[in-house]
Write a structure and sequence with these properties.
heterodimer, A: 572 residues, alpha/beta, Rossmann fold, 4 domains, 5-stranded parallel beta sheet, globular, B: alpha/beta, Pyruvate-ferredoxin Oxidoreductase, domain 3
Amino acid sequence: MNKALLSGNEAVARGAYEAGCQVACAYPGTPSTEILEEISKYKEIYCEWSVNEKVALEVALGASLAGARSLCAMKHVGLNVASDPLFSSAYIGVKGGFIIVSCDDPGMHSSQNEQDNRFYGLFAKIPVLSPSDSQEAKDLVIRGFEISEEFDIPVILRMTTRVSHCKSVVTLGERKEKEIKGYKKEVSKTNLLPQFAKKRHILLEEKIEKLKEYSNNFPYNRFEKGRDDLLVIADGVAYQYAKEIFSDASFLKLTMVYPFPDKLVKEICKNYKEIIVVEEVDPFIELMVKSLGFKVKGKDYLPKTDELNPDKLKVFIKKEAAVEIKSDNLPKRPPALCPGCPHIGTFYLLQKKDYVISGDIGCYTLGALAPHYAMDSCVCMGASITLACGIEKVNKKINDQRPIIAIIGDSTFFHMGIPGVLNMVYNKSDIILFILDNQTTGMTGHQDHPGTGKTLMKEKTKRILPEDIVRACGIEDVYVLNPYKIKENKKIIDKLLKEKKQAVVVMREPCIFLKKREKPKEVDIELCTGCKLCLRLGCPAISYYDNKAKIDKNFCIGCGMCIEVCPKGAIK
Amino acid sequence: MKTTNILICGIGGQGVLLFSDILGEVAMENGLSVKKSEVKGMAQRGGSVVSHLRFGENVYSPLIPLKEAHFLVSMEKLEALRYLDYLREDGILITDDFYLPPLPILVGETEFDFNIIDKNLKEKVKNLYYLPCQKMASELGDIRVSNIILLGFLSNFLDFKIEDYFKVMERNIKKEYLEINKKAFQKGREIFSQ
């Protein structure tokens, strides 16, 4: 049999392929990004980087209504952006099977919160499948399409970082083509006018009742007989940790966590005196089991914050605080902007000043850290501009004279920044907006977007420039600068900071991963006075030894920003 | 067969993930159950990177419990010390003898006496191997293959055949870099017998 070592994300892509999926959409976001990157390798599936998650969900829903199996994927907070069509899609239902993949990030390895999207199932009345490894991720995509079509409802596949990015062995199957049914008018189903929506809501409640029965008999909600005195209930990767620690216990492995399999859980729980629920982040299963009248040990032992690991589960046995690794006294190695990163050139001109700097989501969020200290906030995609709008209104009232700056990346600008620009023009906000245009979606690993002129399927398309959009939105003062030219830029930016009028500055230079390295620069030790100005760039290629600056030739990409800031001309 | 636990660590860009991908696939080719876990995204940008690799008859958790790693392989010494709590008392530490100060130290925001790295590693680890991989990789002509030198060295302690590693490398490494990676593997494997 054909086997492969696949990550959970690769397995989701494989499942979509084998299930005859026709359309797949996503906006990149860790830990979900690789799903669409992998799907794009299967030529049978149309796939796209949609502009944002709301768009992705709607495009995939449209494809489903046209009768094709479709899928959209996003990180957990992406589902917040897509939550508006999510709720409506539950009412409307599907034609072709429709799966929404939500990759949650317990531990916040690369996110701003650790929300538990199992609750979206309960909230929006959409079934939730929770795989615990790659094989299950693949199988549940195939199963999910079937459930979606059988019950005329979207299905949420809820992954987490340790399922998405963990690799395990998967058995591969062949693709089974599904006939595309084609678009048919069915207004009372797809048009949620109140008179139609009322009926759809009643129908949805009926579907959920039927799905509860399905969940009670779903083979992936599995009882594993072990010791008679201990039952462990777990889902997702938490099940794998629990199997490691409670090797001889009885297990109830839950996979369809919504609708909750009440009967099955009751049937099993009544035979056990001690019941432990192991799950990451919020007590979702625990609340459900408790509501059935059973006493369980769960979040009164396990933390509600951060991801789990096998060691944390030992609290149930030892009754002492979870074991943590003790390397806290060592210097941390936080992520940093890359050597020669064009964002460095922007932050150098804004660093350590008392400006209001409203930030956004991307590599450049690292501008908040040493030695840049040039980003005050990071809320959600696009919030840089709109948060600044609010601050500006208050500061004007109290005559606070500090310049108000917003910083957003190119991909984030296209995702959700444009309404903010319209708002700042319409409501007359004097904000200096920097669009850091490195011509890619950097943090998630270099995906195309409307500003790159290429699609996910590697086709050429119209390239849309941020400066054209902001001009069309009504911004009059627009600059396009090269962030490496620090000296020239300083003159323009200092003037803007003094005037404090509405303006947009596009800082354009490709991400270092998209261009060839140039010859590394060198420090002339005779001329270097050890003033450390170049160190303020925070370029990882520059260090300080024996009172002189030193450039690591293995790291330096030859961008020349250090030459711009050296007052002695000591770098060549 | 009992589960073998290998923790691989280093800095974003050093090839930690390629290392564990290759070894994971070699274990799969040998019919074993494999679990491998790492974190991508923000943490990769010059930050500390760690990969958990486990293989055996039936592996559940993709994360290695503390004090359960049979091997700790590190591409940088400070990172070796950072993850030392994962190593069993009788475990083996293989690390590149290379220290890269984290950015806050490079720019003078934090101070750190790097001599405590060697002191700690030597005090705490019974089975310790320092390898000058970066230097050896430079001599081979590409500093980036130092991860594969470490893999070659580690292969002496595992029961897989060289041909298995090469077969997997052919799948995972671009043609133009294959030859130098194979050389790096051989080099790492041979140091042990010297």
